[in-house]
Amino acid sequence: MNCIVCRKPMQASWSPATFFQRDWVCPECENQLTPLGTGCPACGQPNDTGGVCSDCIRWSALGLDLSVRSLFAYDEQGINWLHRFKFGGDVALVEQVRSTLRSLRERGTTYVPIPLSEKRLRSRRFNQAEYLARMIGPTQNLLLKEEVLSQREFGKERRRHRSNPFTVQKQVKCGKIVLVDDVYTTGTTLHQAVFALHQAGYKEVSAICLFRALNKSKTRPI
Amino acid sequence: MGELVIAPTGKRAIRFGVCQRCLSTDVRHFTCHHGRCRYCRNCLFLGRVCACDRLEERDLSTAAQSTELTMPFELAPRQRAVSDQLLSWWEEKKTGLVHAVCGAGKTEMTFPVIERVVNEGKRVLIVSPRKDVAIEWAERLERAFTVPITRRYGGGDRDSIGMITVATAPLLLNLRNLFDYVLVDESDAFPFAFDLTLWRTIVRAGTGVFLFVTATPTGWQRLFPTVHLSRRYHGHDLPVPLLIKQTDRSIIDFCQRHEGKPRLLFVPTKPDLGRYADRLRACGLTCRTVSAETEDRGETLQWVQETSGIVLATSIWERGMTIRNVQVGVLESEHRLFSMRGLIQMAGRAGRKPDAPTGEVTFFYQERTYHQDFAISAIKEANRR
Q1: ipTM higher than 0.90?
Q2: Considering the entire predicted model, what is its pTM?
């Protein structure tokens, strides 16, 4: 039995329990992703003081106060990991963050993944955010996304000034809502989704992101 | 007859829990866009296949080219006998084994038959266990043949084939019935010995005529018609390993006795590299270490050749590697990771060049084992034959 991330053979001592355990992550790969330290309470952007960052002040000035819980830094290893998971399609890698995600579960909370557009879902075959949400707890597909161009080609300005692609597809009676996404870069996606949910009448919304991109917002304020 | 591609029609990619492209059973359930589905984790590097994909064989044919051969040196009579045997096997379309000692010039002996096959308009595939060895093959072939050589290994050109293709086995997963003559170099080496699906891969990529080339064939390979060559091309004996009790003193003695020559010390595992390197450095000897994780093995090879230094290596360097006038020591030769075949290959690193045909090979031991004795007697027997 090999490590699912690096494929090295298992070094743990053998026991009847390991016979039933198909997936194993070696200790080196466990510590591969770097957890975020102290940072902005609203988005997880690392800073020394733990104060609210300028991006989030701007968002709250627009009337959207959303607190995002980010787990890992989107650095070299994070990018590699996410590319293998999302674009390479190696879904089994999610075992590596399973226990971390599972510990975030709260009672009476519905986890809503950020959806993919129909066309993107066809080509990628799975929704990576839905996978992460399922790891945490009970999920509901509340949102729908219409076709937009890929985000990665846009600059920061263009990304912030586009119309909201999200619509709420059904009204469900549920308590707290937690949005789940894979990467938080500028926060536009999450805030747009929150805006759509607020309009549909859902009041208590927060979010969880697996990775926080360490952007250059200090050098280039928006 | 061609290459497997993901297409709307064709056979299902995963059937009975087995990936039809790579024959792996590491197949995982996941949720596809339509619902429950499975995908193969073993061949992700070729693009993912899941159970709702279909695989189709697309024709992959290239124009036949003829070639001219310029031999790097004239074959000795013994080598000529072997290469004539290879030609007659090709006439009869028979699979065979070349059992030749390390440093017998196995590469050059196969050139005439490769030329014959190519000039008949058939494709040749050369499979090697590692990328280093594949690069070495491609360079030697390029010097000898006029036809372009396709390099199908990681870092080379991964998608194309040609009249002569040099490849590592994992990149042949999606080829079917393409190569009329498959030459498996070092056919008992690491990836083939443990992963039986790689054998199936090679068998499916070829059309049935194989040639196994090795110095240490495994049992089932000996069942094929065999041609032996137990002399090196310069005609000298293989160096017979000495057995010396391993102490720090004896290792350092070995290094100091061969001052001014490149010295190569094999260790069993990666943690041992650091341990022994520290001990040598404490005695004022400079050394470098080589393992599978070392990025620039070629650069280290050049360094040891030029400065006549000491290199500590894991078994990654036990095959397909030539250093002029090298002295070989095997540390902890009783370790279970050193097989009989591995020990024979390591001893075969010494004395491979005609201008330095001898060298010292030492097995350092703490215990005497059957493996050491078998390796030594096999080398002696090859010398006697």
Answers
A1: no
A2: 0.78
